Amino acid sequence: MAKTTYYIPVGPIHPALKEPIRVEAEVEGEKIVKVDVKRGFAHRGIEYMGMKRNAIQTLYLSERICGICSISHPYAFVIGSEKALGIEAPPRAQYIRTIIAELERIHSHILWLGVIAHEIGFDPLLFWTWKGREKVLDILEAITGNRINYAMYMIGGVRRDLKESHIKALRDMITYYWEFTEHMKEVFLSDPVYKARTRGVAQLSKEMALKLNVVGPTARAAGIRMDVRQDIPYDAYADMDVKAIVPQDIVGEARGDAYDITMVRLYEIEQSLDIIEFCLDNLPEGKILAIPNYVALLNKIKKTEGEAIGAHEAPRGEVIHYLKYDGTRDGPAVWKVIAPSYNNINSWAPLLLGAEVADIPVVVAYIDPCMCCNDRVAVVEDSSGRLLDYSYLHKKAVEKTRKLEKELGVRR
Amino acid sequence: MTPETIFYAIGMPIIGVLLGLVYKGIDRRVSARMTSRIGPPIRQPFWDVGKLLLKETVVPENAVRWIFNAMPILAFASSMTLLLYIPFGILRAPLEGYGDLVVILYLLTLQALAMAIGGFASGSPFSSVGAQREMVLMMSYEMPFAIVITGFALIYKSFSLSTIASTPVWSIVGPLGGLGVLLLLIAFLWVTPAELAKLPFDIAEAETEIAEGMLAEYSGRNLALFYLSDAVRGFAMIALEVVLFFPFTLSYLFGLNLSGAALYIAEGLWFLFKVLVLYILAVTLVRTSFARFRIEQASRIFWVYVNIIALLGVILIWAEVM
Questions:
Q1: Which residue among A15, A127, A193 places its CB closest to the CB of B207?
Q2: Does the N-terminal peptide bond of residue B41 adopt cis geometry, omega within 30 degrees of 0?
Q3: Taking Cα atoms as reference points, which of B190, B202, B205, B193 lies closest to residue B304?
Q4: pLDDT digit string, tens, across residues A301-341
Q5: Domain spans of chain A?
Q6: Does residue A284 have a cis bond before it (omega within 30 degrees)?
Q7: ipTM for the assembly
Q8: Residues A53-91: pLDDT tens digits?
Q9: How near does any CA of chain B get to the CA of A362, in Å?
Q10: Which CATH superfamily is domain A46-343 in?
């Protein structure tokens, strides 16, 4: 009998992927009949590294977990640390932190819009959106000194203050982006080819979304009203009324497909602009650090015993840091990072099954995956390069225990 | 064999390749400027070909070796032959009288077919999926293409390209037929990007989906031959379009009274200018302003909409001619 299915490996190196992950698809013609997602290509042991350093070094390390949301991880980290230490950032610092986080959301969402355009072969749109993204990167550079990896946050505040010139530049930027977003909405949401390629693709129902535990815009596109900024508000978000952006509020119904997620992201850019404007209008005066002396801060951490969870709504969904200070070191004794892509990648396999080969890039890109955020585990291979699966390792472990029991004469 | 035929046999392919690469360079440059980039220099395609010719030609282990290596040559040869059937302005086609529009249709098909067979012979899943897509796409766009050519045959009562080139189509059709020809032009403009495997119909080579598809396993000299045949095909296809739909010569438009070499040079440049304008409008502009379709969407577009447009055009022409 003739072979009717092809095996298509997507990744770990593939033009549709910007970071390493592997999607193994078996296709019949254009239809995917079998799919497997393999992760774990970008494991760096970063949590272990963080547990060997002091808290300020770990804060900088946390910026390097992700290449795009370089403020989301520090945000969750400082919130967790402040909770554990029992200190609170001064109001001005809280507002500045919120402004920076929203600036990052704007640049991350515009980046995604460019990426999805590239994935469906619409490169001119990629160039145009990324050209528009330059403005927010310039602002971030003016405020923090860097386009990416801002090194802005500190446990108990921020490291740099907002000057009058920054505020003026921010207001200019807000005007610019209101216009630009309006233009982007027109281009993305009314383009017939874009609609043809994304409508009904990567469609996640509300039940499925709840079952798969997806977070962030992926969940909101499916119609679930969840947003850390709305559910457990922190910093300046507590002073304003942040509402999760869901498609049913915009067009009346949520279909949870790639088109809806585009809509959610576009409207979230506008929401971010609103938040920044609110923060600028209500920016409190005062100092920017609760404990300006870093040595004093580290000493306080050394004497602190406690644990806390810090959560922040990153552009891709909720990022959660669990921290434990044990009172012997000036750094975290336990540090656990949960990145949104870890949950969102769950949606790939069910969405790809029955989809077309042409939909692979859209399904892969629509959650805006960040592989370097989510790899927490390394896998074991034997000498011939064969992957040892969990059940095999478990069996071996049991065998070893039995052997030891026998040797030591332990009765069961 | 006269010296003239030898000149054509050697000169035309060289001129065709040069022009094809220059147009490709201009296309890339214009497309870059449209998307606010600087873009490569116009001679970049020449460098690309030169670099590819220097590179090692890798044949995959599980490829069917002789088919894999023969297909680029077949594609290149058919594109070279194609050039000999295109009349350059008032210059007659070298192989005039030995074939007509139908041969051109087959030669264009042959290149796509060579690429698809090469893709199947590569033994790579990406190439196989790409080749399958190319076959489906070919079945979709060849039909409207054939209908357009039938429409012209109805008007001129001949498939000969020289007959068509000698008299502008717009001057011999009435208002009803003119509308028909206009519909044929629309159908032909839809077919152009598909025939040239450009966006929005570069489905068989989709980079982000199947990593350049049929060409995934090709490298070195083989890839250079495909690159060249692609460049020549782009030029030939647009030239064909100019001959069919915009055959207005300078003398016809402005009543210039040139003769001898001056006439040939002026008309030749005018023809190249027309090709350039149409190339930018029909290829560059289109590929810069569309996203890639899915294969079943592209099939539907051709089978339903473009076919209807083309058939309507033929019916209008038929109504006038009969």
A1: A15
A2: no
A3: B190
A4: 888 888 899 999 888 888 899 988 888 888 888 888 888 88
A5: 46-343
A6: no
A7: 0.76
A8: 888 889 888 888 887 888 888 999 999 999 888 898 899
A9: 9
A10: Cytochrome-c3 Hydrogenase, chain B (1.10.645.10)
